[in-house]
Amino acid sequence: MLGADVIVPIPLIPGVPVLAAMGALSTLLVNRNVSVFHDGLRPLMPSLRSGEMTRDQVAKISFSLALAFIWAFGLPYSVGFVIPLIYLVYIATDYIGVRLPATYDVRWWQSRTNLLGVIGSLVLGAAWGGGVAAFLHYLAVGMSNLPVPMAAGTALFTTPVAQAFFLFPVLTVVYHYGFRPALVAFVVSTLAWFSASQFGWALPSVWAFGAALLVMAVLLVREARRSGPAAAQVPPGWLIEDESAAPDWASADSDDEAEDQLFRDNVRRIKGNLPLITLLAGLGGAAYHWGLVAMDPFSSNLYAVGLALPAALVMLMWAFAFIPMKFTTAVVTGTMATGTFLEPVVALLMPNVWAAAIGVALLRVVEVFLLLAVVGWIERWPSIREVADVMRTAIFQIMEIGFLVGGALAAAAWAGTWGVGVVVAAWFVNIKAKSPVMPMSLGAIAALGVGLVVNVLALLGLNLTL
Q: TM spans, by residue (predicted)?
């Protein structure tokens, strides 16, 4: 059996202690400038380390990022009988970590400032992680006991996207290769779906996804063969471990050599903190396997209903879309990405929680040691980075549409056709107001608003579902 039997809402045990440990350790790693979750915050960490930016400046940016992601993305898809998103923990621990004091010219135990930052990180990070687990548990219980129960209906938010994930590679092909190749990908995936249904194969959507992904892979290989490696046909200098054996073309000017040395030093810095990075990865592997947290809303939907393989495939697409950016920023900044989206792929496919924890921990070790090689490979084949960038756009746009439909479904379950009207109206109002709410979160937030109104009216004896 792949994965685990997920319990929703997340149980207090092991939910509270595991998320508390993850919160404490992730905050500590941020405070020591070792690992950061948010991709927008990571590029600022070298400036914080060097003193070019103050902690107050970085903390203000982190707070704005955290606030936006928590209320507009993390929270709406984490309430009720669903697997909550890891954003609720790591986005906040990013802020706590940069907010607390730290210096980087001495070891953490060699100054009072660093000791205060480390102790504060462990205490406040644990309080946040454990508090999130307890809050979501009791919130779901409360939502299930409302006059119009809402907890079960929240799973509808992500159902449309969870069933249409085979469109990720199709839309990627549309954006990068054009309409005709995309039509081929769609037809092939549709035929795979119908064939799986006709012959009684399990999970037709997985077969459709695999077919579309195969078409995209063929197109990518053809493009790579036509264009070849990057113009210089030469790997970056910082991939050459033995500089004395480097050929003539590897001799760069002083600026390039300084940059190459900086990249090597940054990776060396990450390797020096590998034990703590690995420990956090192992905790994350256990949490993903148990279904205590998830990396995205629709893979969580799939995993919660026992579809571990489709959930892992969804996360594999996320990994392809984000790894080029995450690995590159790690090499450039000397601060590792807290997650690369590969962790759930491994964790969800393991037979038990110990295998998941060990497997993800080993994965993180491999990732760190392959940072330079992978980034160099990506630089040699720029089409990979281009397709990954397009895939992120495709995933987000499918999420926007699918989550709007999911919000309408949930609102209809709570308030009938009136609820659908409210969600649709909220979409247009949000556009008119220049999107103060993230489009991919609008459907869920509007539906939750509908649910609250319905429950208030229910207390007055009115029932909108009739």
A: 6-30, 114-138, 150-170, 177-195, 201-221, 272-290, 302-323, 330-350, 356-378, 401-428, 440-462
Residue 266 lies in a domain: yes
**Do 404 and 376 share a domain, yes or no?**
no
Is the pLDDT score of 236 beyond 70? no
> Is-contact 365 274, C-beta < 8 A?
yes
User: Is 454 found in the same domain as 318?
Assistant: no
Whole-angstrom Cα distance, residue 233 to residue 172?
Answer: 27
Which residue's entry shows tokens 């090597």?
Answer: 264
Q: Are 168 and 176 in contact (CB under 8 A)?
A: no
In a domain, 226, yes or no: no
The last residue of one of the domains, among 336, 354, 380, is 380
Closest CA relative to residue 89, chosen from 39, 133, 45, 57: 133
In one-letter notation, the amino acid at residue 375 is V
Length of the chain: 466
CB 98 within 8 A of CB 41: yes
Distance CA 304, CA 288 (A): 11
CB 291 within 8 A of CB 8: yes
Residue appearing with tokens 């030093």: 265
Q: Are residues 450 and 356 in the same domain?
A: no
User: What SS3 class is residue 229?
Assistant: coil
Cβ atoms of 339 and 322 within 8 Å: the answer is no
Q: What are the residues whose beta carbons fall under 8 Å from the beta carbon of 233, sequence distance 6 or more?
A: none
Whether the bond between 9 and the residue before it is cis, its omega within 30 degrees of 0, is yes
DSSP per-residue string spanning 130-151: HHHHHHHHHHHHHHHTSSS--T
In a domain, 440, yes or no: yes
Tokens of 304: 């919660």
The single residue listed with the structure tokens 């008119």 is: 432
* DSSP H helices in 291-381: 297-304, 308-333, 342-348, 353-369, 371-380
Q: What is the pLDDT, as a whole number, of residue 444?
A: 95
* Residue that finishes a domain, picked among 355, 380, 405: 380
Per-residue pLDDT of 94-136, as tens digits, reads: 999 999 999 998 888 889 999 999 999 999 999 999 999 999 9
Task: Report yes or no on 199 lying in a domain.
Answer: no
| Residues 307, 311, 315: CA angle, nearest 5 degrees | 170
* Domain around 430: 393-466
Are 332 and 259 found together in one domain?
yes
Q: How far is it, in rounded angstroms, from Cα 152 to Cα 141? A: 10
Given a contact cutoff of 8 angstroms between Cβ atoms, the answer to whether 336 and 270 are in contact is yes
Same domain, 328 and 264: yes
Mean pLDDT (whole number) for 286-294: 97
Assign residue 36 a region (left: φ > 0; alpha: ψ between -120 and 50; beta: otherwise): beta
Distance of CA 22 to the CA centre of its chain: 16
In contact, 140 and 128? CB cutoff 8 Å: no
pLDDT given at position 75: 92
Return the H-helix or E-strand segment holding 337.
strand 336-337
